[in-house]
Hints:
five-stranded antiparallel sheet
Amino acid sequence: MSAHWCAEQITIFTVIVFYRPEVGSELQHESYGIVSDEMHHDICSVYTFNRHILQHVQHKLPWTIQHVHYWSDGAGSQFKNRYNFTNLLYHQSDFGCTADWNFFATSHGKGPVDGVGGQVKRSVWRAVLKGTVVVNDAVEFYHAAERLNVLFVSQGVIKEAAAQLVERWNNSKTLPGTHSFHYAKPVSTEAVACGRNSPFTTGQPALAIHSIVKESATTSAHVIAPIPADGPATPTCIDAVPGNFVMVKYDTKKSKNVFLGQVVARDESDLEITFLRSKDSDHKIFVFPANEDKAWIDDQQVQEIVDTPKMDSRGRYIFNHGIAVTE
């Protein structure tokens, strides 16, 4: 019962490493679970976890790792941010190999790493039910799961890494349109090339080189892929803030759509938007759907800020004029 009612929380960071033992050989994989008592799921934790995994993998392989292709979701606090992009610049000196980073699309669903976490937790829970272990903290959880491929990284080790990385990160700057990137790789000691698509899914994508170091004199955004002569001009950014109601445009190859949303948060040039749905043919009455529709966008997708509507007793938002949405 003490194990069941224990309020101590832990972190489980799951990774699957794919590799070929020899050139041309069949693809192999190793599943890892990092157990930690550090509850801040930030870039420093990710950096430290990756360091331990790479060290463990390198120890098992008969050859030296030359390059790492990272794949993850686009979580802004952990993966898709200026700190992680800056770490790519130092990947060779930190870990002895180069790297690039690929981001899955938003709402990509479950993947193999989710199964790894489930297996680790299920293994420990079965041991607790059998009465063979009592788990009260992260260390005891780690020992209960030791028969699996599990590593332990303490909060203290992560704090030490953070102290070493803070100067590096303070010298970095946010890249415009970060939330739209799905690929990043270092191209120099102070710049990364970013693209909206991964080269593993679409061939060679259009990449833009961004200087990410504050003191750098490198051009902040130099597009190295050709831009069509009839391509759209870069739109003027609208300074929307949390609470504003805005018109958001989504352009695809087949259509141009405009939606109404409310700004929830802002991170440099990116906005988190909660979208509303029209309830009448004149598009004057809007509601937030029962299933929350929320997404991060580039601020260049904001077409305009609209007047704040009135809210009636039924929780509907009433505008004085029709909103030109394309639902």
